[in-house]
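anyone else get weird line breaks when pasting these?? whatever heres mine. first is seq + C-alpha cells for prot A
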Amino acid sequence: MTVLPNAAGVGFKPQHFAAIRETAARIGFFEVHAENYMGAGGLPHAQLAALRADFPISLHGVGLSIGGAGPLDADHLARLRALIDRYQPESFSEHLAWSSHGTEYLNDLLPLPYAWETLAIVCDHVDAVQQALGRRMLLENPATCVLFAQSTIPEVDFLAEISRRTGCGLLLDINNVFVSASNHRTDPRAYLAAFPMDRVGEIHLGGHDSEDLPTGPLLIDAHGSPVADPVWTLYAEVIARIGPRPTLVEWDNDLPDWPVLAAEADRAQAILDGGGQGLARAS
C-alpha cells in the first residue's frame, strides 16, 4: 500500500473542479469525505475518478461512529470497503467521536469520556474497521468544548493506547488541539509535547469560529475560514520537531474561490519545505 506524500493537500469540493483542472497548482493530494461518494455513479464519481488519475487521495470518514457504545454499522462498513476497493486511496481516516445511537444518526461528531471501558470499545471498533477494510486506518483527535466527570485518562494517553493496542495510526488535527486547549484553558504546547508523533500519518489544519460567552470565548471547529495564525505557529513548531508529514488544509463551509484555498496550501507547503521556518503567508 502506498502512502500520502509529505506535502500539502486540500479537501476537494466540486465547486473547485474546473479551476483545479485549468490551473497548475502545486497540490500534494486531495482529501474527500467518504460518505459523499457512496452512491454508484454520476458526476461525483466522474470528478473523483479524474482527480484520482492525477493525484494521491486521502479518504476521510465522518459517519462510522467509532466512539459509539453500539456495534458498527455493517452496511456502512461494506459501502466503505467498496469505495476503498474502487479508488485505492493512499490513506483512510476517521474521528475519535460518536455520531449515532441505535438507528438514529446525528449530523455531528460528539465527544466521549476517556475511561478504560470506553477505550476497550473504541479499540474493538478500530480493530473491526481495519479488518473489514483490509488496511491500517488513522484516528483523529477531536475538537471538544465539554469534559466528562467519568474521564480518567488524558486524551493523549487515550489515543496513544488505542494506537498501541490496534496498530492504527493517528491523524493530528492541530486546529482541534488549539480549539480544545482554548475551551478547556489548557496549554496546546503541552498537549503536542506529549502526543505520540511517531504514530502520526497525517496532519490537519483548518479555521475556527469564536463565540463570546460569560465564561470566556468558546472556539468552534467550523472549517469555514483561513487557518488562524496561532495554529500556523503550532504547526511550524511541530514540523520543526518531527519533520514533514502529509498536511491537509480543511475548508468545508463558506467556500472561498480556488486561489484562496490554494494559497493556504502554499503556506503549508512553505512550512514543510522550510522545515518549520516558512511562516510568511503565501501571496
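and prot B, same format (seq, then C-alpha cells)
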Amino acid sequence: MKKNIGIIIVLALSITGAGLFFLIPESGKRSGPGSLRLEDQIAAVSVRTVEASEDVLEDYIRLSGDIEAESTVQIYPDVAGTLSSFLVRVGDFVREDETLARVDPSRPGASYSISPVEAPVQGTVSEILVDPGDTVSASVPILKLGNLNSLIISARVSERYVNRVKTGQTAFITIEAVPDRTFEATVSEVYPVLDPASRSMKIKLTFSDLPEGIKAGMLAEIRLVTDRIEKAVTVPSTSIITRNGETYLYVVKDSAAIKRPVTTGLAIDGKVRIIEGLAAGEAVVTSGMNMLSDGGAVQSVGNRGEKDA
C-alpha cells in the first residue's frame, strides 16, 4: 500500500511539472516579431509617442489696430467766424475746389460776405469736426478728407516688443466684419520714437491686396510675424523635461526608452524647436515619461498626431 502511494505521488509531481513546462515560456523567447518578453511586458511602462517633424516655425506678436485712409487731409476755413452751414456729409466724395462749407465772418456792427470753404484735393469726407453755428478759426480744422480707395492699418506696439518689429515684416489680419477670412499685410512704416504716455511705438501696415468689404474705422486683429525658421525640427512641448538644470526628452527605440539631452530653441503654439540632439522622424514620448528611466522597457499605446499633441 505504501509503495502504491509513493508511485501516485511521483506521477502527480511529474504531471504537475509537465504542466508548468507548457505554461511558462522559455526565458528570453518572444511571442512575435518586435514584442517584449513576458517579464518585460509586465514591467513595461505604457507611453504615447509622436514623430519629431520638420516644420516652418513662426514667432509672432498679437496686436489690435485701426483701419484708416492712407492719406488724410484736414480742412481749415480761410477766416474766423460762425460756421453757417455744411454742404457735405460724412461719406460723400468731393472733387478738388468743391465747396464744402460756408463761414460767416460778420461781427456785431459789421457785415461781411460769406466765405466758402473749398476742398484742396479730391477725396471722401471721413470726419466732420464741428457743427453748424459753432465759432471757427483759421487755425482749427472743421473736417477731414481721406482717400478711401487706399486703406492702411495703424497699430501700436508695446515697449517690450519694439526691437522685434521692422519694416517689411508680414502680418496676417482678421476683421470681425469679414469673418472666416484672413488678409495679408506688410509693415510699411515704423515710427522712430515711442509715445511717452503709453510707452508704445506706432506702426503702419499696408494690405497686399485691398479686400472688398473693408472700411475705414474698422478694428483689425493683427498677427505680426517677427521670426521665421525653415525646416525646424519640432516636438510637442509636453515631451520636454527640465530637471536639475538639464533639458532632455525620451526617444523610443527597440521597445526601450532612451534618455536624450537636447538643446531647445523657439517655443510657440505648443511646439518646441530642437536645435541639437534629435532628428526628424524619431519617436518621442509625449506622455507617461514621468515613470521612465534610461533604457527602461516601454510599450506604446498609440501615437499622437500633432493636433492631439
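btw re prot B: The first helix runs from residue 2 to 23. The CA atoms of residues 56 and 71 lie 36 Å apart.
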